[in-house]
Design brief:
alpha/beta; Rossmann fold; six-stranded mixed β-sheet
């Protein structure tokens, strides 16, 4: 097991502050994984919903791991919309690829539920995403497509 260093971060996405944490393996890691949470049932930051344990486990295996709170959820500002969540993920990918310890061509995204809807469009179109795991994504994402447009 590799010891893990955790650093909180805050970035601005579309004029809204997003908070998150980066988990660094002591060995330095060169690949990164970004976790995208689903639509929360409770108003708690992502760190309190078990994502930190998942990020820590991946960091112990040598991945730089990132968790963050999408816009409009506890821990970040702004209002909810899937369009903003897609923009949020692009901006978090900017943060990840700017880290010196991460090789930009080795970034992976693991997304859950409603976060998977927003992440699917990014994974399909953003060359920075090398691999994508979609967990519990609503089967008919087309019904949410209007929420991925600007202005929603």
């Amino acid at each position: 097991m590799v010891p893990v260093k955790v650093e909180a971060f805050s970035i601005v996405s579309g004029g809204v502050a997003l908070r998150g944490a980066t988990y660094f393996p002591s060995g330095g890691g060169s690949a990164a994984v970004c976790f995208c949470h689903g639509l929360p049932r409770e108003a708690k930051p992502v760190e309190e919903k078990g994502y930190s344990a998942l990020a820590e486990k991946f960091a112990e295996e040598g991945f730089v791991s990132v968790i963050f709170n999408f816009q409009g959820t506890a821990g970040s500002g702004g209002f909810f919309s899937l369009f903003s969540w897609s923009r949020n993920l692009r901006d978090v990918l900017d943060h990840i690829t700017s880290l010196r310890s991460v090789e930009p061509e080795r970034v992976f995204v693991i997304a859950f539920s409603m976060g998977a809807i927003a992440a699917t469009s990014i994974a399909a179109t953003d060359d920075r995403v090398s691999g994508f795991v979609c967990c519990s994504c609503p089967y008919n994402a087309e019904q949410f497509s209007y929420m991925l447009r600007e202005g929603f």
